[in-house]
Amino acid sequence: EARVAPTRRMHGRERLEQRERGVLEVLATLAWAGHREPAAARSAFEAAVAALGWSPRPLPQRDRCSLDGLDAALRQLKALSMDARRRLLASCVESILRDGTTTVVEAQLLRAIGDAIDCPIPPIAA
Fold first, then answer.
1. Were 51 and a residue from 33, 35, 80, 94 both cysteine, which residue would form a disulfide, CB within 3.0 to 4.6 Å?
2. 33-59 b/e (C-beta count within 10 Å ≥ 16 → b)
3. Is the pTM of this model over 0.85?
4. How far apart are CA 82 and CA 32, in angstroms?
């Protein structure tokens, strides 16, 4: 009797650099969600990019960041390895912590990002 090998992998194998566009979409959306002022959003975005060990990247304009774009990026990022997913979430945390204040929107978005890439984040006490 022949055994059929599973065809579905739980996690991908790609590195963050292979999905740079999606990573930057997530980080930009998070930065804009937590800040109204462009300078503050830019600082949060730069902190997140630096946490990945990447050279500086330009922050996309707020109107270029949408929920549809975020959703598409998160679908792409399911191809990341588990280590890359953890690094992405750590980078998101750096973005949120940059200004010393965590908004409800930032916390909710962080949890949603974690859930979307199958790397859930436990509830955080206020």
1. 94
2. bbbeeeeebbbbbbbbbebbeeeebeb
3. yes
4. 26
Long-range CB pairs of 118-125, under 8 A, 24+ apart, other chains included: 118/10, 118/11, 118/78, 118/85, 119/82, 119/85, 119/86, 119/89, 121/89
C-alpha distances in Å from residue 98, one per residue of 32, 34, 45, 85, 114: 13, 10, 9, 20, 19
Tell me if residue 86 falls in helix, strand or coil.
Answer: helix
What's the mean pLDDT in 96-109?
94
Q: Encoding tokens for residue 119?
A: 């790397």
